[in-house]
Amino acid sequence: MAVTHGLGPALFTLLQRQNGLAQLPREAAVSLLLAYGQACQFTDRIYAAVEEWNQRFADNDITAVWLKGVALGLTVYPNRAMRPMGDADVLAPPTQTADALALLEAVTGNKPAQLGEQNDKEAMVSVGLHKGGPVRLELHWSLIEAPTSPLAPPVDWFLDQTTTIDFAGRPLRILRSEANLLY
Questions:
Q1: C-alpha closest to that of 139 among 49, 67, 84, 74
Q2: 114: which of 32, 44, 108, 120 is 20 to 30 A away, CA to CA?
Q3: 134-140 and 88-91 as β-strands: parallel, antiparallel, unpaired?
Q4: CATH for 66
Q5: Does residue 3 fall inside a structural domain?
Q6: 11 CB neighbour count, 10 Å cutoff
Q7: 113-170: pLDDT as tens digits
C-alpha cells in the first residue's frame, strides 16, 4: 500500500534505518527497494533541472521561489527522495511572468502550456532531458485558486516570506516554513 500511495521511498528509508527490511517478506522488501530506487533517479533529474533553472532565472534577473516538493525535499525530509514529486514548482512575481515564460520558451523551444481554463495562475513546460528523461517545470505567478478570495493572502505576501538555502553552491530561494504551511 505504501508504494501504491507514493510512500514507498519513505517507508523504505524508515525500515532501512531501523534494520526492519529483513523482517519483511522478500517481495515487499524488493517492492520498497524498487520504489526507492526509482524515486532517487527521478528526484536526481528534478534537482538537476532545478539547479539549471535556478541559475538561468538568476542570470536573467528573474526572482524564482522554489515551492512544494523541491523546498520540502531539501529542508524537511532527511533524504530528498522521500518527498514524492511529479514536477518542479517555481513561483515568479507577476511582474516577471512574461519574462519567465519567454525564457522557458526560448530555451526549451516549446511554448509553456497554461494550466486551468478558469484561473490564469500557472503554466507547465518540459525542460529537457536530465539524466535520462524530461522534467516538468511548473511556473506559478499566483498561488491561490480564486484570486478574489478574501481569506487568501496575495502573491506579494508569499514573495515577502522567503528565505534562501544553499543548493549546489548557490542560493536557492524557498518559502519560509510558516508560508509553506499556509500555502
A1: 67
A2: 44
A3: parallel
A4: 3.30.460.40
A5: no
A6: 22
A7: 887 655 567 788 888 765 677 899 999 888 776 555 666 677 888 899 999 999 999 9
